[in-house]
Amino acid sequence: MELAYQAWQIYNFVGLALTLAAAVFLRRRSVRIAGWLAEAAAAAYGVATVPALAVVGGLLAWLVLALQFWLVFLALRLQAGRLHPDFLRRSSVRSAVWLTLLAWLAAALWLSSGAALNRLAAEVALAFSLFAGAWFAWRIKGYYSEVGLMSLQRGTPGKPLPSVSLAIPVRNENPALGQCLESVLASDYSKMEVLVYDDCSQDGTSQIIRSYAARGVRFISGQKPAEGWIGKNQAMQELYAAASGQYVIFMGADTRIKPDSIGRALSYMETAGLDMISVVPLRQDGLRVSTVLQQLRYFWQMTLPGWLVAAPVSSAFWCVKADSLQTLGGFAAVRHKIVPESGFAAALAKNQKYRMLIGVAPSLDVTTEKKWSSQAETAIRLLYPLYRRRPLTVIAAAVALAALTSPYLTLLVLAGGGVSVGLAVSAIAATLLSLTYAAYLRLTAPRVWWTGIISFPLLLVQEIILSVASMLMYELGRVSWKGRNICFAVLRRPAPKKSSLSLRPE
C-alpha cells in the first residue's frame, strides 16, 4: 500500500503540473483538456484505492483527493458553459492556481512526515471541537439572558402610533399565502397597510392576492427582473417604493404572526432606539423531519464570532425605518445580494441601530413552518453566496464542520477500547456540542428541543453536503428561486450604476 500510495502521489504531481501550466500559461484547448484528464484519472485511482488512502495517506490524502475532484469539476463547468464566459475564465484560472498549490503542499507534507501530521490533525480536530462547543454555549447563553430581560410591552398610552407598511414578496406561493394573509389581517395594529408583490407567479398566487382586495390588501403586479437584479430583491424594491408607512416590515409567505406581534415589534424598536430589527421565527410544529433535520443557518448566526458574521439577520420577518432604508440606498445598493437585508443590518449595527430578536412567546410570537425539501432548497440558494462565492472558503468550512464531528467519530472508534484521554475529551466535547444545540432549540423549536442531543452530528454532515451542493449547483448555473435561475445575477460582480427602478417618493 505504501508503494501504491507513493506512485499515486508522483502521478498527481504530473497531473497537477499539467493543470497549472494549462490554466496559467497556455490557451490551447488540447493541453488544458489533457491536464484535466490526468487529474480525472488520478481522482478515479484515488477512489478505487480508498482503503489504502484511509490507512496510509490519512487526512492529507483525503484533502488531495478533494482538491483533485474540484479541479476536475472546473473542466466540467467550462464544458457546460452555463455561466458568463469571462467569469468562467477568470474563476477557473484563479481556482486552478490555488487548488493546485494546496494539493502540492498537502502531498509534500505527507511525503515528509505523513503519520505524525495525521495524528496531529486528529488532536487539533478534537481540541477545536472542544473550544467550539464552549464558545457556542457561551453565545447561546447570551441569547437566553437577552430573552429573559427583553420587555416587549405595547406603546405608551396616548403616544401616536407610527404607521407601518407590511410588504410580502411572493412567487408561486399558492399553498402558504392564504394562511399568511389571514394571520396578517388578524393584527390589531390600526395604522397598517398590506402590500403583496406577485413576482410573475404561475400557480394562481395572483388570484389569491386579488381575493383579499376587499379586506385592504393591495396587489402589485410584478415584471421580469432588470439586468443585474435578483427577482426577489427587485420585488422588495418595488414594495418599498409603493409603501407609505414610517416603518416597513418585510416577511415571507411561510411566516405567521399573532394579532399583537406588529405592535410589540414597533414598540420595542421605538423604546430601544433602533432603526431595524429582524426576528428568528419560532417552530411550533412537532416531531417531523423538517424540525429534526432543520438547517443550521440561524444557529451559526447566533454562535459564530463577529468577524465571521457581521450582523446576524433573519429573512423571515424584519422591520426597518423607511427613512433609514432610503439613506442606505434602498435595494439598488444590494440588488445582486442573495440576502439583501444582511447588508442593511451590518451597516446599521455599526451604530447600534440594529438587533436580531428571537420570536418566542409571549413577546413577538412570530412563527414559521417549512418542509425539509423547501429548507434544503433555501440552503442551496443561500450557502455559496454566504461563503462569498469562494470554493476555498467552502472547503475550509467543510473541514471545520468535519472537525466538529470528530468527537462523535472518536467515541464510536474508542468506545470498546477502555478509558483513555482521547475518549474522555471526545465525550466532553460531544456532550457540550449536543447540549448547546438542544439549548438553541429550546429557543427556536421548543417542542423538539430534546432531539438536538442526538441530531447535531447528523446536521453537521447535512451541512457539509448542502454546502458542497450549493457550490456545485451555482458553478454549473443550476440554482433557481421559484423556477427562475438566479446564478448569473449572484455570481457576477456588477459595476455600480444608477438603478432604473422606481425609488420611494420623498
UniProtKB/TrEMBL annotation:
Chief location: membrane
Task: Extract the CDD domains matched here.
Answer: Glyco_tranf_GTA_type
This protein's source sits in the domain of life called Bacteria
Where, by residue number, does the polypeptide cross the bilayer?
A: 6-26, 33-53, 59-76, 96-114, 120-138, 392-415, 421-441, 448-474
| Keywords tagged on the record | Cell membrane, Glycosyltransferase, Membrane, Transferase, Transmembrane, Transmembrane helix
Which InterPro entries does this entry report, sorted A to Z? Glyco_trans_2-like (IPR001173), Nucleotide-diphossugar_trans (IPR029044)
Where does this polypeptide localize?
Answer: Cell membrane
Q: Name one Pfam family in it.
A: Glycos_transf_2
Q: Which residues form the Glycosyltransferase 2-like domain?
A: 165-295
**Protein name (Swiss-Prot/TrEMBL):** Glycosyltransferase
Kindly list the organism's lineage: Bacteria, Candidatus Saccharimonadota, Candidatus Saccharimonadia, Candidatus Saccharimonadales, Candidatus Saccharimonadaceae
